[in-house]
C-alpha cells in the first residue's frame, strides 16, 4: 500500500465532508485481537455513498478492505492482508415505520442502540444477546437471540437491504423480487457478498414491558452438580417465552471456577419460577433474578462483550448434551483456568432457544442451513499474551473434540452456527450439504468472483 498521506489525499475528495480517514494509530479495537487486522488506514464513512466510494478506491489501488460495525466478528481469515478498515459506526440511524411494523437501520447500528430505540416505542425486534455487537453482522449469519422463539431467526425477519458489492456499486432495496438468488445467499451468508449499509427488518408490539431474567450460580463444589444440571436442561420444555445460557466461568471477586445459568422468561416472576422450576430446584448457591425492561435484557452479557484481549474461540452445534461429556469438559475447564490464571476470564458457553418458529420456515428458502441445531456452543479462551495461543487453542480443540464425539450428529457431521465458527471450518459444516454449497458458490461467482469479501468465510 502507498503511504497513508497518498491514500488519504486520493480518497478524501471522493467522500462526504464529515467522513474521516485515520492512519494505523486510529484503528478501532476489535473484540478479539487474536486475528485482528492491522490496517494502514481506517475510514469512518457517514453516508452509504462513502462506503461505495471507499470500496471503489480500494479496488482501483489494489487494496483489500474490510467492514466492521461492532467489531465482534470472530477469527478474521488472512487478517494481515487487509489494508483498510471501513468502520460503519456512524451509519447508525434508526427509523421506525409509521405503521410500526418495520424498522430501517444503518449498517453500523449496534444491538443496544436498536433495542433502546424500539423499546421506547413499545416494540421489539429479533437481535443477538450482546449489547455491543453490530446488529447486521450477527443477523446476516442467521441471527439467533432470545425473541427467536416468537418470531424466528433474524434472517426470517429481514425485509430488504442496501448492499455495496465487490465493485463498489451500491444496490438499494435488495429483496426477493430484485434478485432471488442473491436474497437467498444474503440470508445466512450475507457478509460474504458485500457490505450491507442499511436494512429493513420486521418489528412487533411488545407483549410485555418486563421479563424475568438474571442468573443462578453454583459456586460451592460446582463440579458435583454438573450431572444434575445437564439432566435438568435435558428435561426442560423450552417454550417461545424462554431461553437459557449455561456457562462455565470464573466468578468474581475471587475468580474461582463456577457454573452459571442465565434463564430468561418473557412474563411475570410467578410464571418464570414455574417455567424454570427444574433449574431452581437444584438449589443454586446464588440466585440473582429480577424483572427487567426490554432495553436491559442484554445487560448481564456486557462483561463478555468487552473489546480487546485475545479470544480465539470456536463453536459447535450440538444435537444433544451428554452429562458425562459435560463432566469431562468441566474438569478440563477447571484445570485450565486454575493452572493458567492469565486465562481466568475464559468461558465455555451453551445457548438454548425455542426453535419451533424458525423450523417452520422451509430450510431451502435461505442459505442458513443449521436451523435444527438444538444447542449452540462456544469455548472461548480469554487472555492477553500472544505466546499463550498454542496452549489456548489446544484447550479449545480438546473441548470441541468432546462435543464432536459425544454430543454431535450421529453420523459424525460437525455443524456450526456461522457467527460462532473458527477460521478453518469446512464449508459444509456452515452451509450444509454439497448441493447447497454449490448453489452458494454459483451466486458468489456472479457477485464476487475474486472472493474479495472472503475475510470471514471461504466460499
What does this 3D model show about the protein?
It comes from Drechslerella stenobrocha 248. This is FAD-binding PCMH-type domain-containing protein. GO terms for molecular function: FAD binding; oxidoreductase activity. This protein is α+β, with helices and mostly antiparallel strands. The protein folds into 3 domains: 4-87, Uridine Diphospho-n-acetylenolpyruvylglucosamine Reductase, domain 2 (2-Layer Sandwich), CATH 3.30.43.10; 94-206, 2-Layer Sandwich (Uridine Diphospho-n-acetylenolpyruvylglucosamine Reductase, domain 3), CATH 3.30.465.10; 210-420, 3-Layer(aba) Sandwich (Vanillyl-alcohol Oxidase, Chain A, domain 3), CATH 3.40.462. It has helices at 4-11, 48-60, 111-119, 135-139, 148-151, 180-189, 226-234, 269-275, 277-280, 323-339, 356-359, 389-406, 427-431, 434-447; strands at residues 20-23, 41-44, 65-68, 84-87, 94-96, 102-106, 123-124, 158-164, 170-174, 195-202, 204-205, 210-218, 242-251, 256-265, 286-293, 314-318, 347-353, 375-380. The strands form 4 sheets. The chain has a 7-stranded antiparallel β-sheet with strand order 15-12-14-13-17-18-16. Strands 5-6-10-8-9 form a 5-stranded antiparallel β-sheet. A 4-stranded mixed β-sheet has the order 1-2-4-3, with helices on one face. α7 (226-234) crosses α10 and α10 runs antiparallel to α12 (389-406). It starts with a helix and ends in a 12-residue tail after the last helix. The model has no long low-confidence stretch (mean pLDDT 94).
Amino acid at each position: 500500500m502507498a503511504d497513508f498521506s497518498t491514500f488519504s489525499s486520493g480518497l478524501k475528495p471522493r467522500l462526504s465532508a464529515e467522513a474521516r480517514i485515520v492512519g494505523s494509530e486510529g484503528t478501532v479495537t476489535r473484540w478479539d485481537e487474536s486475528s485482528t487486522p492491522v490496517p494502514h488506514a481506517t475510514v469512518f464513512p457517514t453516508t452509504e455513498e462513502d462506503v461505495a466510494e471507499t470500496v471503489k478506491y480500494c479496488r482501483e489501488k489494489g487494496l483489500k478492505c474490510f467492514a466492521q460495525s461492532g467489531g465482534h466478528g470472530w477469527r478474521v481469515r488472512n487478517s494481515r492482508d487487509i489494508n483498510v478498515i471501513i468502520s460503519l459506526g456512524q451509519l447508525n440511524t434508526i427509523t421506525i415505520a409509521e405503521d410500526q411494523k418495520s424498522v430501517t437501520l444503518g449498517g453500523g447500528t449496534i444491538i443496544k442502540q436498536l433495542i433502546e430505540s424500539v423499546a421506547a416505542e413499545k416494540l421489539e425486534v429479533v437481535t443477538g444477546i450482546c449489547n455491543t455487537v453490530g446488529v447486521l453482522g450477527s443477523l446476516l449469519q442467521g441471527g439467533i437471540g432470545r425473541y427467536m422463539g416468537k418470531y424466528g431467526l433474524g434472517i426470517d425477519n429481514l425485509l430488504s437491504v442496501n448492499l455495496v458489492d465487490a465493485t463498489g456499486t451500491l444496490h438499494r432495496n435488495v429483496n426477493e423480487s430484485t434478485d432471488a438468488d442473491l436474497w437467498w445467499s444474503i440470508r445466512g451468508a450475507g457478509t460474504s457478498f458485500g457490505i450491507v449499509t442499511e436494512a429493513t427488518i420486521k418489528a412487533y408490539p411488545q407483549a410485555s414491558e418486563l421479563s424475568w431474567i438474571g442468573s443462578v450460580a453454583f459456586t460451592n463444589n460446582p463440579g458435583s452438580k454438573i450431572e444434575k444440571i445437564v439432566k435438568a436442561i435435558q428435561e426442560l420444555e423450552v417454550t417461545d417465552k424462554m431461553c437459557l445460557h449455561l456457562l462455565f466461568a470464573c466468578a468474581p471477586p475471587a475468580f474461582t471456577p463456577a457454573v452459571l445459568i442465565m434463564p430468561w422468561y418473557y412474563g411475570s416472576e410467578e410464571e418464570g419460577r414455574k417455567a424454570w422450576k427444574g433449574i431452581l430446584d437444584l438449589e443454586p448457591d446464588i440466585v440473582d433474578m429480577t424483572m427487567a425492561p426490554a432495553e436491559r435484557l442484554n445487560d448481564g452479557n456486557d462483561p463478555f462483550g468487552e473489546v480487546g484481549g485475545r479470544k480465539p474461540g470456536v463453536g459447535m452445534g450440538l444435537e444433544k448434551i451428554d452429562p458425562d461429556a459435560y463432566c469431562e469438559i468441566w474438569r478440563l475447564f477447571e484445570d485450565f483456568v486454575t493452572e493458567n490464571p492469565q486465562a481466568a476470564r475464559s468461558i465455555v458457553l451453551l445457548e438454548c432457544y425455542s426453535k419451533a418458529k424458525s423450523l417452520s420456515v422451509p430450510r431451502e428458502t435461505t442459505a442458513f442451513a443449521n436451523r435444527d441445531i438444538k444447542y449452540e456452543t462456544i469455548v472461548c479462551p480469554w487472555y492477553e499474551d500472544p505466546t499463550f495461543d498454542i496452549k489456548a487453542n489446544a484447550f479449545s480443540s480438546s473441548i470441541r473434540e468432546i462435543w464432536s464425539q459425544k454430543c454431535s450428529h450421529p453420523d459424525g457431521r460437525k455443524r456450526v452456527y456461522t457467527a460462532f465458527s473458527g477460521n478453518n471450518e469446512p464449508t459444509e459444516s456452515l452451509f450444509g450439504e454439497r448441493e447447497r454449497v454449490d448453489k452458494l458458490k454459483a451466486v458468489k461467482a456472479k457477485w464476487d468472483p475474486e472472493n474479495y469479501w472472503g475475510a470471514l468465510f471461504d466460499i
